[in-house]
Amino acid sequence: MLQRPRVLAPADAKFTVFSKSYGLDNLVEQNLKECLYHGEVVGRSRSSVALSTCNGLSGTVILERNVYMISPMKHRVSTTLSSHPHLFIRLRNDYESFCVPRERGRNQSSNPTYVLEHLVNNNETRVCRKIKGHNLKKYRTLRGRSRYLELSVLVEKEMIEWKNVSNTDLFRYLLDCVNTLDLFLRQINVRVSLVHVELWTQENRIDVTSDDVSTLENLVKFSMNNSDDTAQDVTFLLTVSGENTSQIAVYPKSVCTVNATGLIRAILKDHPVYISLLMTHGIGHILGLRHENSDKRNAEKDFLSIMGTPCRINNARRDKYRRAYLFTECTKHEFTRLLNSNRADCLFNMPLQECESIDPCCDFMSCKLKRGAQCSQGPCCEKCKFVSSGKLCRPGKDADCDFPEFYAYKPDGTACGDNKDRYCYNGKCVDADERCRKINSEFMMADDFCYRKYNLVGSNVGRCSLDLSMKRVACTDKNYQCGMLICKRKVHLQGTGLPRDLNFTKDTNAFNCSNAVLLNFTLVEDGTKCGSNGLCEEQACVSADTMLKRVSCSGEDEESSLPCNGHGTCTNLNTCSCDEGWEGSDCSFMSEDPKAGNDSVPFPTWDYESGITLY
Question: Which spans of this chain does the record mark as coiled coil (predicted)?
């Protein structure tokens, strides 16, 4: 049973070719949108198929936990309709192409690194926690609701020359890529809509270099400057790899922001499934999903995690063929928690839809704003117009660590709390006691001695990570406070806690850890205070000073080196949030309005260490 993907190529999508002579010219190939299909193999309910009939039969088939590719044979001329040979190929194991060393780009270490996400602790394994109790109903509701990701794809000049096909054939190739991408993302109930394509046939519209960071910065600027043309959720730039490995560079956790961009350097140009897998993995990180080293556990289930780390998979597996790529239940749970945090609200609108049809500011036929309308809803939208300046539209979500109005927050490692004894992380003042209280109002953080006693062991009641063979890895003296979360009851109850009675005396101090409660083997939350001047990140204790150095907002006065010229606060985006009475990108100008402040957050000056995921 085959059916056409409903939103894959909407009617209002813009498909263009850019050249020196003619600028942007529409690529009118409406019939190509009607030759894409999804379905399943007859009699195999757990199979899935993405096919194209645009030029022969091509596509991807997931069957019996294997991935197969269908391609028409090239340069074969047939005079009869019944004789058109095609290839049906099983996807071979090719992890070596993902695991070769490569040099980092600008502002990066000169030492080669494997093509891995540099922010991931190589010894850390994300462990899935079950959805329980009061969250279950909301979880099911979100899991059952469709999300729509509006995708823009830009193809640079070198890639077009490398493919060496006509614009129409290249467009068919991109449609096949996105059709297979849609097949993969359907597993988390996300549907892809290709709303914008640009083929840069003669000249690139941005500077594309071998430096991933610089190229990605240029891509974000381009997306910002052209955002009025098309409303996209994610933008990918496709180019050619200068090495024998495919590479991805993305801004992680950037969904629903202008930074939701990715760079793909490809080495395999024949079948779209390769580009689709890279896109799927990159979009996973843009959505906020982390690497998952669960393939040892998934071996018996005979599939590979889409969010798995390629080099680790290579070390753990030696079979000849790749198995099916799937989102694991653990990753699906993590994605649902992302939706609960309201960080992906842009995925809930239909493609190219500006407003809800029932809204009085909205034209119910086109789901576009009525003529003269500026907005349709929100705290700063009144009678279809934006309210005048001076009204707070977005209050800060955390009084200590988040900025009002803008989706920016104080840098990770900023001291917070009444006694400045905690730290900001991802816009939140993290408190381990509060984490325990959320689990049970009678809980609080256990004594430090209990953390040291359990997490330094590496057992079922205390650890910092799991290795490739799924063995528990003990914490070190530096990071033992970042391992398993251990809470205790405020009032000791006999017979509760760990499965053994543990009373200790150390330096004449008595400790009773028997009332500690290990809950679901939960790991300590990132941002939790550790040591004398550190906070936990990926189960490692990182100096707060090290985290603060990830951002830089020095003013024009280099001698003083005061952030934002001493009249503002640096944000996680390397921009300034100005104090009252000051404005400008570096807070160097006195405002005519003495109550003005919190100036607009301009384009961020990203550096490699502060938030780009490279492969």
Answer: none
